[in-house]
Design a protein that fits this description.
2 strands; single chain; 2 domains; Arc Repressor Mutant, subunit A; globular; two-stranded antiparallel ribbon; mainly alpha
Length: about 130
């Protein structure tokens, strides 16, 4: 059983969906620092994905500082603050740009986007 919830949806890359689900579980507090993360083999079997894809997911999460990998222990959830504020903010740059482009494409103003962002922020804090 995976320590995070995910429902794979067609049309989106599996790697992006799983990485987002893990980050969401960390932010929501369902995955606490030090919690063991499934091995590549367990991840690939549980999600029924190619082991190379599972390895890519784990490697990306390690590279982004979400997971720490240690020999003989495996991967565990990293403590927040292991990276400085600027590095953590830089991780959002691509997602923020996509959000802005989509919002402008839909004709939404900055105030509407900020209100929606605030609503999502509050909703995640309640969980």
């Amino acid at each position: 059983m995976l320590p995070f919830a995910i429902e794979l949806k067609p049309g989106l890359p599996i790697t992006e969906q799983v990485i987002f689900a893990v980050k969401k579980a960390v932010v929501a507090g369902r995955l606490k620092p030090g919690t063991p993360f499934p091995s590549v083999r367990a991840l690939s079997q549980e999600l029924r994905i190619n082991p190379n894809t599972a390895h890519k997911i784990t490697a990306t999460l390690v590279a982004e500082g979400v997971l720490l990998t240690t020999p003989a222990v495996g991967s565990v959830v990293a403590a927040p603050g292991d990276a400085d504020q600027r590095a953590r903010t830089a991780l959002l740059d691509d997602e923020l740009e996509r959000l802005v482009v989509e919002a402008k494409n839909l004709g939404l103003g900055l105030t509407v986007v900020q209100d929606e962002l605030s609503a999502h922020w509050r909703r995640l804090n309640k969980k």
